[in-house]
Here is the input.
Amino acid sequence: MKTSDPLGLACPVPRTDADRVLMGHGAGGRLFAELFDTVIGPPIGADPVAEDAAIVAVDGVGVVISTDSFVVTPHDFPGGDIGSLAVHGTVNDVAMRGARPVALTLAYIIEEGFPTAELARITASAARAAEQACVHIVAGDTKVVERGGADGIYINTTGIGELLPHAVVTAAGAEPGDAVLVSGPIGRHGAAVLAAREGFVFDLRSDSCALAGMVEDMIRASGRRVHVLRDATRGGLAAVLNELAHASGAGIRIEELAVAVPDQVAAVCEVLGIDPFHLACEGTLVAVVAPEAADDVLAAMRARPEGEGAHRIGTVTDSPAGRVTARTGIGATRVVDMPLGEQLPRIC
Amino acid sequence: MKTSDPLGLACPVPRTDADRVLMGHGAGGRLFAELFDTVIGPPIGADPVAEDAAIVAVDGVGVVISTDSFVVTPHDFPGGDIGSLAVHGTVNDVAMRGARPVALTLAYIIEEGFPTAELARITASAARAAEQACVHIVAGDTKVVERGGADGIYINTTGIGELLPHAVVTAAGAEPGDAVLVSGPIGRHGAAVLAAREGFVFDLRSDSCALAGMVEDMIRASGRRVHVLRDATRGGLAAVLNELAHASGAGIRIEELAVAVPDQVAAVCEVLGIDPFHLACEGTLVAVVAPEAADDVLAAMRARPEGEGAHRIGTVTDSPAGRVTARTGIGATRVVDMPLGEQLPRIC
Here is the structure.
């Protein structure tokens, strides 16, 4: 949009404008929750407790289903691209209900003039990621819009899966005393995309990968004692912990120093002034498990390459309900807040 | 894109440029088929015979699944809007496999600055359409892109459903001697959108509606004798007849005068130089049924408001395989060709 204010000082879309959708509404933080609770949710009759995936009865069988659109920019980043990310993101959302992903749909909105070779490359990347995750791409759609209408390509994937035996996994399942586990170091996807966008040269790759196989091993190791699974995508670890504390009506207390932040992620965060707890992961999950199952689940995670950095970061408490706190390195306690939402657009 | 050729005479994206995606690739005609067969299909290992929906085994049950993105412009047109259309389009694609749609996902890509009131209105329209079609919206996603990045809003819906008892419906199911039925007059959606886009004032509404209830009645009336169901969306009646002739390895012969074209549709087509057989419908289906079942199926269709104009338009022949011909009003025979693709962008 052209403006008579080239420095953007007047900000044509004020952040306080309640009548317009803002970039921050799409970042999975508090702004999105507000938009969902006031605008999108009520007509649909949707539950404000957002799970990563829904469970629908089809012919008497529970089918797990989840949808996500991918608008990441740039399309290529160290460790992945929009095609592989679109598969991993949805496969993981299905897996986070304690399910085995079975099939995906793949829908493209492409801008006129987009190079066919790039479309072929992205499609091949999505196909490879699906094959590695043992899911079939069974249906698709292709729309083309005019030049300038889609920033190259947007991808929607929707996944369906079948519940794993003995899995009872929900965002509301955290119980006081449960152990809070993380499958690896945080912030790698967000930092890799931001570094690629800003042209930084860091030895840093997105963690984007399918987590369904690891989830299957975790459930096999301890069944119903896995209470919550969430991949720490938009909004990062902070958003996920806040969401599950809120959904479960429990508190969460973590040890800040127990959360592994790779040096390169910390460096990107320092340069850009971002909290690593707010950075998206695309191959790292948070699990809340019964305390007696923690060791078995950690062993199951560590037995796989995507979970080799798994560790315990905290405990579910009975109060303060809905609040996440961290014990810092110097022994103080700080509140880990839900990110507002606008700082990291187009990360997935 | 700025160009030094303001009249567009040099055409920066030549239509013969095989290295770029063109508007016509998204119109569901021959160009799309070519893109799919050469670029998108091979990495995925997809069958070139495209059904409206796939059937996936989940825990031993056949789950029908279909996805579609909606980029229609304008967002509002007589008889519907992008919200209701996004529900009807996917519900109908699921129904066309002989299934009862059960649930939908709803994913938005929204442009920064989009009015919240318009988002609320579109969401309410989608919710109303879903309720009327007896499907639940069970999951969703919202992404926001910068101004200019999504022409307001794009919507993806993915639907899942359960197979109706005795339904064996596939695009490849047409057999010589079968009756070809249409559920109503053609071209109403495409004509209504084009008229709204051009600012024409016609007394014309899109036929956009859910067809799942009618499909259920049709299958109940004659079970396996319903061989093919297709809603005549992108590419219109001509595309659907060609696709099913091709998939079934059969010929189709129709009576041109038996195809009802409303006067207002004919008028829009005359003004814009378009063949009404190429105009999209969004609430009108083609059924290929065993000849002895034709009367029962027509009666089931006519008993519902969305099928009250149902009639027989032709017959499946054994040759020429893959070819659709029409007997014209003066008794001549013409070939009904697959539309190339580019004449009607952004119709759904």
